Amino acid sequence: MRRGFFAFWRIILYPTYLHILCAVVAFVCCVPIIFPEICPEPLKASLLHYAGTALLAAPLCSIVFLALAAVMHMFRMNNLRALSQVFKWAAVWGSTWLCYVFLAIAADVKPPVLTTPGMPATTIDTVHSPHEQLNGPASLVIPLSPGEEPIDKVAEAPNMVALENHHEELFKSYIDNSPRWSGQEDDDTFYTKPGHLIMVPPTQAGIPALVHVCFRRLIEGDPLPQGYVVVKPGEAFPAIPEDHTAIPDYALDLGRNHFLLLAWRGSNHQETALRAINAAITATDARMQPLLDEPTPETVQRMLQGRETYPGTTPEFRLSEPLAQDGAYQAELYANPGEPGVILVYIKERKTDKTLRILSMQALYSENKDELFRHDIPGSMPHWVRNTGDVGIANVFPHNTPLFAIKLGPQRQYFEVEFDIWFKPTDVRRNRRLLLRRCYKVQAYEPPATEETATEAR
Questions:
Q1: Disulfide engineering: 275 pairs with which of 31, 57, 149, 343, CB 3.0-4.6 Å?
Q2: What share of the chain is helix, strand, coil (3-state, %, to 5)?
């Protein structure tokens, strides 16, 4: 009895071997969770249930004994030994965590193919073009129709001018927090500044026609980008010289520190270009109406966030191609998994079934089954965990850019991919499930040319 008491007391004071045992149990329980295919089918649900329970219990038990040991050593006025127990516990579980990471990387398990009737992967045989319009703040594309816009003078911009004159700080807050377009922070083009929008007028004779638009805030007399012609709302357009080979880029002066930069990219037909530029001014100005009606920080936040929930029961996925950079895309998922977890987006080439990109984000959910939450993609997994091919494009777009790139695949030609949308519950005892699958024609990202690549090309 006395020997047993001392043995138990030693375990309380020095539970290192107990930590190792708990770590081994936790690691072993990870195996059927990572490799569920090794479990016999009749026993799979039970095995995964017990494995998940043990995986949660093992570290909890280890933490309890660590706390007991540390407290007992501190009561015995031996703080050094208490600290050593904490270091030993951290070493044991740190080593276990590293082993688990390497096991997960080596496994790289592909999503199982579900054949359940009624699975919501409804449009698997339909290949879509990524031209859908998005609803959230990630939408950088505003379709416009030049219609009967005048060409003798610059369009009025009453909302933007009023905001600039009377609510400059709120206007600045909106502009500074709008989505960015590119990650080239030292590049002084409109592609990199906050508030970037792309207006898409109708094409002329099959020629792509765009109006690139962004806000520019000048500080302490900073110059506008080279080549821009300053114009004011309601005034006449400056005459374009007959020998001018392209439509000039315009900077709309809003009255104080802000300019709206507009660059036409299309045919050099003057009437078409000026109508499209005026339509872009009108469309951008209309976006500012809610802020002018209710000039509060809350309105700015609502305009930046957009509507987050929509009525519905069937998950939906939308993909948009902004048309300014090959291989750069925006996407929104509408879903409500009904429980906490992670949304996983697998982008796979249809012909080879090769995974081109994996994106992830925390799932938004509620108990209301008739409510769908908008999830703005991207949200990339760390490339060192899943996809080492992402190293070269990890920082192509800054943090607040609502764009992701498809790096692998043929460039400058469209090919078919599948977007498999999976939900992985936080509860490790529950299997992940396929929410939907949708197919699109996409093209791969081509990094912009640098001085080095230009030299090599020569």
A1: 149
A2: 35, 25, 40
The residues, ordered by sequence, that sit 6+ positions from 246 with a Cβ below 8 Å of its Cβ are 268
Distance CA 443, CA 446 (A): 9
- Beta carbons of 17 and 42 less than 8 angstroms apart: no
DSSP string across 194-225? TT-EEEEPPPBTTB--EEEEEEEE--TTPPPP
> What CATH class has 123-131+309-447?
mainly beta
- Beta bridge partners of residue 345, listed in sequence order: 359, 421
Among the listed residues 417, 412, 414, 347, the one whose alpha carbon sits nearest the alpha carbon of residue 377: 347
| CA–CA–CA angle 89, 94, 98 (5° rounding) | 155
Phi-psi region of 198 (alpha: psi -120 to 50; beta: other; left: phi over 0): beta
- Of 426, 382, 428, the closest CA to residue 26 belongs to 428
Query: What is the edge-to-edge ordering of all strands in the sheet holding 258-265?
Result: 141-143, 197-200, 210-217, 258-265, 249-253, 228-231
Both tokens of 51, joined, read 């494995």
Rounded to an integer, what distance in angstroms lies between the CA atom of residue 252 and that of residue 232? 6
| Core vs surface per residue 22-48: b (16+ CB within 10 A) or e | bbebbbebbebbeebeebeeeeeeebb
Residue-wise over 406-418: b if at least 16 C-beta within 10 A, else e? bbbbeeeebbebb
Task: Please give the C-alpha separations between residue 4 and each of 10, 17, 391, 448, in angstroms, as whole numbers.
Answer: 10, 17, 56, 72
DSSP state of 404: E
Looking at the whole model, is its pTM more than 0.90?
no
pLDDT by residue (tens digit) across 37-96?
Answer: 677 777 777 787 788 888 888 888 888 888 888 887 777 777 787 788 888 888 988 888
Q: How many CB atoms lie within 10 A of CB 265?
A: 18
User: What's the first-to-final CA gap in the chain, in angstroms?
Assistant: 87
CA dihedral (125, 129, 131, 136) in degrees, to 10, reads 40
Instruction: Find the mean pLDDT for residues 375-384.
Output: 60
